[in-house]
Amino acid sequence: MEFIFKDHHHEDAYNQLIEEADLTEIELKQPSALLRRQLAFLYLIALFQDDYIHYEGEAFYVEAYEELSLGGPTYLLEACMGEGTYPHEQILYIAKKLLQGDVTDIHTSFEEYSSFIKCAIHLVG
Question: Rg of the chain's alpha carbons, rounded to an integer?
């Protein structure tokens, strides 16, 4: 899997989430369809971890149990029923749709972030 990152901060935030997920090398090299959707979700929310801290009081984090569990401002997942007002909400809405496997109605015209959204869509397949 080849990702493009906005900057080192995006890459570091993504790698932190992946580390928290406690995935094996085999899982990362040959991810299941579910794991590809989860990785795409984590990749997109990693773009805005600082914004989640600033606006919501905490960043997202992953807890690895038998299944991956998401912590942090998870109430936004329910609150972002529409596309949201702010970029961190808009990207979360898109990430949630990808996590659900819905790639049909994803707007890639989110100018500054379209290349990252397209990368995530490609990962989901």
Answer: 13
Q: What angle do CA 69, 91, 115 make, to 5 degrees?
A: 115
Domain map of the chain by residue range? 8-124
Tokens of 22: 């406690």
How many helices (H) and strands (E) would you count in the chain? 7, 2
Determine the Cα–Cα distance for residues 123 and 125; give it in Å rounded to an integer: 5
**Global pTM?**
0.91
Structure tokens at 89: 């909400």
Burial 71-103 (b: 16+ CB within 10 A, else e): ebbeebbeebeeebeeebbbbbbbbbbbbeeeb
> How many residues belong to the chain?
125
In this predicted model, what pLDDT tens digit does every residue of 79-103 receive, in sequence order? 655 567 788 888 998 899 999 988 7
* Gap between the Cα atoms of 63 and 1, Å rounded: 22
Q: Are 31 and 39 in contact (CB under 8 A)?
A: yes
